[in-house]
Design a protein that fits this description.
This protein has 191 residues and is mostly helical. It is built from ten helices and no strands.
Length: 191
C-alpha cells in the first residue's frame, strides 16, 4: 500500500509522542514497545521501520523534549524566566508528568542508560542551562552559567520531591519554596 508523502514522518512523530508520554508517566523500564505501538494505533512490526531499538526511541524522546517552550511562552506573556520557573514548579506540572518535563520524570533512570543515551541527555541539559543563563541577571558569563546550573538543578529536584511526597500541602510548600528560591537566584522580579 502506498502512503501520502510525509506519512512516515507523521507516524514516527506519533510514536515519539506516545512513548514520551508513557515514559514520563511510568518510567522507561516499565514501558514496553507493544504498549507504545498499540497506543499509537500501529503494529509492533512497524516500530522497526522507524527506530533501531527502544534505546534509539529513548534518545529521540529526549532530543524532542525541551524547556524552550515554557521559556518562549513566558517571554510572550511578559513573565520571562521567573514565569517559566513558576510554570515549571506549578501544581499543574507536578500533577501531569505525562505532559511535562522528561528530565524531572526520568533523570534517575537515565543515569543507568548506555553512554549514547546519556550523551543525548547531557546535550539537552546543557541546552536548557544555556537558555536559563540567558535570563539570569549576573555580571559575567561564568556567573550566569553557575547560577543557571544551580537554578536548573533546583527546579528538577524540587519537582521530583514535590511529586514523591503524598501530602499535598507539603508538596505545595516544596513547589512554592523551590520556585521562590530559583527566581531569587536568577535575580528576577517575584512574578
Amino acid at each position: 500500500m502506498r502512503y501520502d508523502k510525509g506519512h512516515k514522518d507523521l507516524t514516527r512523530q506519533r510514536i515519539i509522542e506516545v512513548a514520551s508520554r508513557q515514559f514520563r508517566e511510568q518510567g522507561v523500564a516499565a514501558v514496553g514497545l507493544a504498549g507504545i505501538m498499540s497506543d499509537a494505533g500501529l503494529t509492533n512490526g512497524a516500530f522497526y521501520a522507524h527506530f533501531d531499538s527502544k534505546e534509539d526511541l529513548v534518545r529521540e524522546v529526549l532530543s524532542h523534549a525541551g524547556f524552550r517552550t515554557k521559556l518562549s511562552r513566558a517571554a510572550e506573556n511578559g513573565t520571562g524566566l521567573a514565569g517559566a520557573i513558576r510554570d515549571y514548579l506549578s501544581q499543574n506540572h507536578r500533577d501531569n508528568p505525562g505532559k511535562g518535563c522528561p528530565t524531572s520524570a526520568l533523570v534517575a533512570e537515565i543515569a543507568r542508560h548506555p553512554k549514547a543515551t546519556r550523551d543525548a541527555f547531557t546535550g539537552k541539559v546543557n541546552d536548557v542551562i544555556e537558555l536559563i543563563a540567558g535570563g539570569v541577571d549576573a555580571l559575567s558569563d561564568a556567573e550566569r552559567r553557575r547560577k543557571a546550573v544551580a537554578i536548573y538543578a533546583l527546579m528538577v529536584g524540587t519537582l521530583q520531591l514535590a511529586r514523591a511526597v503524598n501530602d499535598k500541602r507539603l508538596s505545595g510548600e516544596i513547589l512554592q519554596s523551590g520556585a521562590d528560591e530559583a527566581v531569587a537566584l536568577a535575580g528576577q522580579p517575584g512574578t
